[in-house]
Amino acid sequence: QVQLVESGGGLVQPGGSLRISCAASGNIFSISDMGWFRQDPGKQRELVAIITSRGDTDYADSVKGRFTIARDNLRNTIILQMNALKPEDTAVYYCHAKVVLDGTVMRILGLESDYWGQGTQVTVSS
User: Fold this and answer.
1) Between vectors from CA 25 to CA 24 and to CA 30, what angle results, nearest 5°?
2) d(Cα 44, Cα 3) in Å, to the nearest integer?
3) How many Cα atoms sit within 13 Å of 116 on the Cβ side?
4) What's the CA gap between 106 and 32, in Å, rounded?
5) How confident is the prediction along the chain (126 residues), in pLDDT tens digits per residue?
6) Which DSSP string do the residues of 8-33 spell out, in sequence order?
């Protein structure tokens, strides 16, 4: 019904930058919140950044001032610009979206469902 596809991950040196993106497609009527989560082996998945359909943002304390999230509502895409990367930023980054599906009842009531991408690997190492 809905697919979230991440891209842009890779290997970068400490202090470097990367930009990852997520494109949503499928039977989408609208998307409210979208965001990025990350998970490294042995750790719980954690919120990195979220952005609402109106552009309001929130960030994890560990990435504030270094990461920026943005979205293109017409294309149903978000990006995460990551600067001043640290080894501890190494993780699989997952895209998440709250979606109202293109169905009569769901459109009328505004019912939302959660969807996840497959993840993109970001490795920060010298």
Assistant:
1) 75
2) 23
3) 10
4) 14
5) 899 999 999 999 999 999 999 999 999 999 999 999 999 988 999 999 999 999 999 999 999 999 999 999 888 999 999 999 999 999 999 999 999 999 989 999 999 999 999 999 999 999
6) --EEE-TT--EEEEEEEEESEEEEEE
